[in-house]
Specification:
The chain has 2 domains: 3-15 and 109-231, Rossmann fold, CATH 3.40.50; 19-101. Strand 4 (126-132), helix 6 (138-144) and strand 5 form a beta-alpha-beta unit. Strands 5-4-1-6-7-8 form a 6-stranded parallel beta sheet, sandwiched between helices. It is of the alpha/beta class. It has helices at 19-31, 39-42, 65-82, 87-101, 114-122, 138-144, 157-160, 167-176, 190-199, 221-231, and strands spanning 3-7, 14-15, 109-110, 126-132, 153-156, 182-187, 204-207, 217-218. It is elongated.
Length: 235
């Protein structure tokens, strides 16, 4: 029996404090010390524009890394301009923020339970696949964090053109996995990860999220693995 767990990345297997806004502030701290820009000031400019803000639309025109980053760097530069930085400086900072965001040494951290749970389920015959709305460099980032030995495949929306919860994102993952007999999705987003998976019949576990009720949810990956173990079919 071929069994696969689809894993989200950010907020599930690994985390980066502040995500995009945090990275942009760190870039300002390094290159414009004394800037006086607060993270919350950037928030309104980042609520729209990322490809995953329109998951119902395929973004096949952004599947090449240069095209994807041209689009996203434009968004970051516009946010920097929105908080008062001149256009030339904003463009320069956007490029520097890009470099920082994909640098695995810049604040990316695995959760303590990530590798133990991947190992635990792996010994039971589960294959692991990352399915994430993320940057083109996600496979390299995953490898630098030491996850490659535990994963069969890393799928990033920046390369496929489909963002969760778009059904095509999950259907593509199933095809790339070879149509496994049993599949689960684990992630921290109730819409992109859980509702998206369940909409095409994939059971899902919501993990590391408080204040949201889901049919299956877990405080951490250990609990998520226990749910999968209790609910899966015998081999």
């Amino acid at each position: 029996m071929d069994r696969v767990v689809l894993w989200d990345f950010d907020g599930t297997l690994a985390h980066r404090p502040g995500m995009w806004r945090g990275c942009m502030i760190e870039t300002l701290d390094e290159h414009m010390p004394g800037h006086m820009v607060d993270s919350e000031e950037l928030r309104p400019f980042l609520r729209h524009g990322f490809p995953w803000h329109r998951p119902g639309v395929a973004h096949l025109e952004l599947c090449e890394p240069d095209a994807w980053w041209q689009h996203v760097e434009g968004l970051l530069a516009a946010a920097y301009e929105g908080v008062g930085i001149d256009r030339g400086g904003a463009r320069r900072l956007a490029r520097l923020a890009r470099e920082r965001y994909v640098d695995p040494s810049c604040r990316w951290t695995l959760y303590p339970d990530t590798i133990p749970v991947l190992q635990r389920l792996g010994t039971q015959g589960w294959r692991h696949v990352v399915l994430s709305n993320h940057v083109p460099e996600l496979p390299e980032l995953v490898a630098a964090l030491g996850l490659s030995p535990f994963l069969d495949l890393v799928l990033t929306s920046a390369a496929t053109g489909f963002e969760k919860p778009n059904p095509r994102a999950f259907e593509l993952a199933l095809r790339r996995c070879g149509a496994p007999s049993e599949v689960w999705m684990v992630g921290d987003n109730p819409v992109a990860d859980v509702a998206g998976a369940e909409a095409i019949g994939i059971p899902a576990v919501l993990v590391r999220v408080e204040g949201i009720v889901a049919a299956r949810q877990a405080r951490d990956l250990d609990e998520a693995a226990a749910i999968i173990e209790r609910s899966s079919r015998p081999r």
